[in-house]
Amino acid sequence: MFARLIAQKLTLNESKVAAVLRLLDEGATIPFISRYRKEASGGMDEVCVENVSAEYSHLKEIDSRRATIIAQIEQQGKLTPDLQQQIEQTWDLTTLEDIYAPYKPKRKTRAAKAREQGLEPLALLMLSPTDKDPIAEAQKYLSDEVPTADDALQGARDIIAEFITDQPEVRQLARNAFRRQSVASMSVIKGKECLASNYADYNGRTESLKNCPSHRLLAMFRAENEGLMRLSVGIDNSEQLLERIKRTYVRANRWAKHVSAAIDDGYKRLLAPQMETEMRAEAKERADAEAISVFRTNLRQLLLDAPLGHRNVLALDPGFRTGCKVVCLNQQGDMLHHSVIYPHPPVSKVDESRQQIKSLVNRFHIEAVAIGNGTASRETEQFIRDLNTDGKLQVFVVSEDGASVYSASAVAREEFPNEDVTVRGAVSIGRRLIDPLSELVKIDPKSLGVGQYQHDVDQSNLKSALDNVVVSCVNQVGVDVNTASRYLLSYVSGLTKQTAQNIVDYRTANGPFASKSELKKVPRLGPKAYEQCAGFLRIPDAANPLDASAVHPESYKVVTQMARDLGCSVRELIADKTLRNRINIRNYVSDTIGLPTLTDIMSELEKPGRDPRQSLHAFAFDPTVHTINDLHVGQILPGIVTNITAFGAFVDIGVKNDGLVHISAVANHFVKDINSVLSLHQHVNVCVSDIDISRSRISLTMKGIEQPQNS
User: Fold this and answer.
1) Rounded to a whole number, what is the distance in angstroms from the first to the last CA of the chain?
2) What is the DSSP string of 95-114?
C-alpha cells in the first residue's frame, strides 16, 4: 500500500519503491541505498531516496492518526462500516481531520450548551423540509435555561452553525476558496510605530497570500511574533462562498432565514477563523520549506567548499585593541603554537609583530595563512601581504561564521581544555582552510550563516534537513578512518556517536587501522553497521588498495576476479588504464551485482578515493577599498559570495557590510533559481549600482560584468 501511494505521488516504479522501503526498514541509510544498492532502487539518487523516505514517514504518520480517529469514533459508538471505509481510504491528513471534525471532542461551545438544553431536535427540524411555524415549535422547548422562543431558536441556530461548518464538503469548499483568494494584510499595532520601523515597508501592505514570496512571509510572521505588527488573512468577497453553502442547506420555507442566519454566524465565528488559521499554517509551511531548501543548498556548498589540503597553516583571528590571535597548525590540524600580535592601532607594535610572524613561518615551515573575515580582517590581510613580498605564502580570508559558537562549545573545551575561546576560535579558522568539512561538522549548521530567517522556520524540520545535508556531504567525500575525529565519524553512514567514539578509542589503543576488515573488531560495530559504513571509510596506505577507495568490501571479490582474469594484481589494474579498458563489465554481472554497481566500480578504479571537491583558489580584495566610503557607483570590484537567499546573493567586497546582488541583477538573462548561477564562496566580479551610507546598504550588479574563469 505505502509503496503504491509513494510511487504514484513521486512517479516512480512501484517495485523499486518497495525495495527501498524494505531497505529502510532493515536499517539501511539513504547514502548507502543510493550508492551501493542501485540495482534494488533502480538507480535512485540520494535526493530521490530521501523523498521516498520522507513520504514513507508521512504516510506512517497518517496511518497512526487514522487508527486514533477510528478508535475515538468507535468509543463514541458512532463508527459505521461506511464511515470506517471512508476513513481507511483517505491518505490526506487534512481530509482525514475534516472527516473527524463532527466527532472530535470539543470544548464547551455554544452548540454543546444548546444540545445540553435539549435543543438538538429543534435544530434538526430547522434543517428539515417542514413548514411548521418556528415560534410555535420553539415554545415546545422552553425551560428554566431556555426562557423564551427566541432563546430556543438561537440555541438551534448555534447547533446548525457548528454542524454545517464541521461538514467535510463545506470545509473543503471554504478551503478551496481561501487557497485561491486569501489576502494577507499587515498593520502596525498602535503604540509600536517606532519599534516597528524596520518593518515600515510592510505597514498597510496587502497582497495575495499564495503569491507572497517566502522571505516576505517569514518577515511578516517575525514582525507579528515580536508583537509589533498584526497579520490578518482572509478573503475580500465571501458572499459567493456563503451563497454556495446556503444553496445546499437553506430551503424555501418558513425556517430559511434562521438557517441562513446560522450559516452567516457559523462562517464568521467558526469557519473563517479556522480557515485563516489553516491558510496561515499552510503559508508558513510553504515559506519554511522554501527557506529550508535555501539553507540546505547553501550548507551543502559550504561543507563541500574546496579544501587547501594537508599544509602547515598559520591562522589569525584579527582584532584591533585585543590584538590578533595567532596559531600554527601542522598538516593534520594539530596546534603547535599560539600567541598574540599587535600590528594595528591602538598598540601598533608593527615591527615586533612582523618579526614574530617571520619567525613562526620559518620555525613551523608555514605554507599558507588563514585570516578570519571579522573585525580588522582587511588590515590584517594587508599586513600579511606586505610581509609576503616573495609570494611564497598562500594567503586566504576565511569565514568566521560559527567560530565563536565552536570556541565556546563542549567540543572545543574537550579538544582544548587549557586554552581560552580566542585560541580555539583561531584554531577553527585555520582548520577550516585545511579541510572545511572536517571542522564545520563540529558546529550547529544554524550557526554557519547559511541562510536567512533560520530562527523563524520550524526548528525541528530545519535541524532534520540540515543534519541530512551534513550526512550526505560527509559520505560523498569519504572519511579517512585513521585521522578523522569522532565528530566527523559520527556522520558516516551506519555509525552513531558511540560507535564513532569506539573507533577512535580502538585506534588510540591499537594504532592505525591496517584494513577495513579490522573495523569488525571495534566494540558494538556489528555486521549491519559495518555493511553501512565500510564503503564510505578510507585507509589511504592499506595493503589492499581498494581499502583506500569507495569500492565496497562486498565487491572486492569481483575486482579481484577482474585482475585475475587479466593476469595482474589489483594494484596494477588500478594503475594501468589499458588493462581496465580490456574489461567487459557485462561478463561480471551476477545475481548479486549488476551493471550500475559495476559501472561505479570502474569509475572508482579510475581515481580511487578521489575527493569530489574542487581545488582551492586564492583570492584578494581590491586593495584600494576598505570602507563603504571608498565606494562609488559604477566601480567594478572582486568579491566572494557569502550568502544566497531566494531574492538574491550577498557578496563580500572587502568592506564591513556585504553588498546585495538582487536575483534580477545576477545575469543578463532571466534567472528563476539563483543557485543555477551562483554558489556559496564563489569568486565573482560585481559593479556597485547604489550606495546608501545612512543605512549601510550596498547594491551590486553582475549584469554585463566579465566573471573570473575559476568562478
Assistant:
1) 48
2) HHHHHHGGGS---S-HHHHH
Please write the tens of the pLDDT for every residue from 155-210. 999 999 999 999 999 999 999 999 999 999 999 999 998 888 889 888 888 999 99
Q: How far, in Å, CA of 137 to CA of 126, rounded? A: 10
- In tens, the pLDDT along 356-412 reads 999 999 999 999 999 999 999 999 999 999 998 788 899 999 999 888 899 999 999
Question: How far is it, in rounded angstroms, from Cα 611 to Cα 601?
Answer: 16
C-alpha cell at 411: 567540543
Rounded Cα–Cα distance for residues 84 and 69 (Å): 10
Q: Note the pLDDT tens digit of each residue in 114-163.
A: 999 999 999 999 999 998 999 999 999 999 999 999 999 999 999 999 99
For 420, residues 6+ apart whose C-beta sits below 8 A from its C-beta are none
Q: 458 by DSSP, 3-state: which?
A: coil
- What's the CA gap between 311 and 685, in Å, rounded? 29
Q: What is the CA radius of gyration of the chain?
A: 33
Residue pair 45/76 in contact (Cβ under 8 Å)? The answer is no
**How far apart (Å, rounded) are the C-alpha atoms in residues 495 and 31?**
12
* 271/673 Cα distance (integer angstroms): 37
209 with 279: CB under 8 angstroms? Answer: yes
- Report the candidate in 94, 109, 125 with the shortest Cα–Cα distance to residue 162: 109
